[in-house]
Design brief:
methyltransferase; TIM Barrel; UROD/MetE-like_sf; alpha/beta; Uroporphyrinogen_deCOase; eight-stranded parallel sheet; Methylcobalamin:coenzyme M methyltransferase, methanol-specific; single chain; two-stranded antiparallel sheet
């Protein structure tokens, strides 16, 4: 089955060959395609072609235009470091003082920074993928982008010292997010939202509900008004805000490896599709193929019967140098398990894999 056929069959309750699986290869696709990551900053065709190369090599179930966390802040004035062959990083935020917040302007996705490159990459990817595989456009949420506009530590302090200033940052940040989401929707790609700074590992649930959730809801509602239903990913521990995120009415929730798939299934699995959560660093990057197999099997056993569906994924984007054999093992394991999932057989596979690791 193609990924599109598999997704349609799952939605209709028809027979499928396996669970959907997305290793979330991220900029590691450059290694598959054979280009340097720096090409992604100016070559939209390379971004799209690298995504397709990863799909053809591994057979994953979705593709996404998303190179790093910073194109939106960059388009609003932040300075970004561009290594020759690694992922871009924040060098300097857009502003340095609270007084400068009022000077910030929403970015124009067709003109500012690398946003036009990303939009062109979406057009290429849509053309390459045709109707075979679902493609999405990644975007950071307004709260996370606000940190990159002003400075992470300063913004954390500002939450307590000057909350109104944080709301101003989030508001102008949101306008950029909405403009970019609309541009992606016009091309025909569904936005997905990453909100790493909303993690309970970074801020309290109270702070999340006051400073992130209102803008996340507005962005989700904006996207849904155009007929799309985004997936939301929040890094780190998120168990205390799962219900808040689910109440947004989104299409799926992606959880990190430090969160529990089983707990997530029990808490919100009857309300939303769950995605996750093999450790991207400790297992996918640093582990052996057999360790990848074990953790993939354990995740399947924990969540295969989640009422609204389950997608096998890494807990977050994979490090660039993640071994190909580990990515292949995740995909092969899901194929071997097949569908419908037989839990007794999965348990037997887990036991056999553990014996092999002893």
């Amino acid at each position: 089955m193609t990924p599109a056929q598999r997704a349609a069959a799952i939605a209709n309750g028809s027979a499928v060959d396996r669970l959907p699986c997305n290793p979330n290869i991220a900029n590691g696709v450059a290694r598959v395609y054979g280009c340097k990551i720096s090409e992604f900053n100016h070559n939209p065709k390379a971004i799209a072609a690298a995504q397709m190369a990863a799909y053809h090599k591994f057979g994953c179930d979705s593709l996404r235009i998303f190179t790093d966390l910073f194109p939106w802040a960059e388009a609003m004035g932040a300075t970004i470091a561009f290594p020759e062959d690694d992922t871009a990083d924040l060098l300097k935020p857009a502003i340095s003082s609270v007084e400068d917040i009022d000077k910030l302007q929403p970015a124009n996705p067709y003109k500012d920074g690398r946003l036009p490159v990303q939009l062109e990459a979406m057009k290429y990817l849509k053309d390459f993928a045709k109707d075979e595989i679902k493609c999405s456009a990644g975007i950071v949420g307004a709260f996370t982008n606000a940190f990159f506009l002003f400075n992470t530590n300063k913004t954390l302090k500002l939450i307590h010292k000057n909350p109104e200033a944080v709301h101003k940052l989030c508001r102008v940040s949101l306008e950029t997010c909405k403009a970019y989401a609309k541009a992606a929707l016009d091309i025909g790609l569904n936005p997905t939202i990453s909100e790493p700074m909303s993690s309970c590992t970074v801020v309290s649930p109270t702070v999340f509900r006051k400073f992130s959730l209102p803008y996340l809801k507005e962005l989700v509602d904006f996207i849904k008004n155009y007929g799309s239903n985004p997936v939301v990913h929040i890094c780190g521990q998120t168990n205390k805000i799962w219900q808040d995120v689910v109440d947004l009415g989104i299409g799926g929730i992606s959880i990190d490896n430090v969160a529990s798939l089983k707990e997530c299934k029990l808490a919100v699995g009857s309300q939303i599709k769950i995605m996750g959560n093999v450790d991207p660093g400790g297992i996918m990057y640093s582990g052996t193929p057999q360790e990848v197999r074990l953790k993939t099997l354990e995740g399947i056993l924990d969540a295969y019967d989640s009422p609204k569906g389950y997608v096998v994924m890494s807990g977050c984007s994979l490090p660039v140098e993640t071994p190909f054999e580990n990515i292949q093992m995740m995909m092969d394991t899901v194929r071997e398990v097949g569908y419908p999932v037989c839990p007794e057989r999965v348990i037997e596979m887990i036991v056999q894999t553990k014996k092999g690791l002893e």
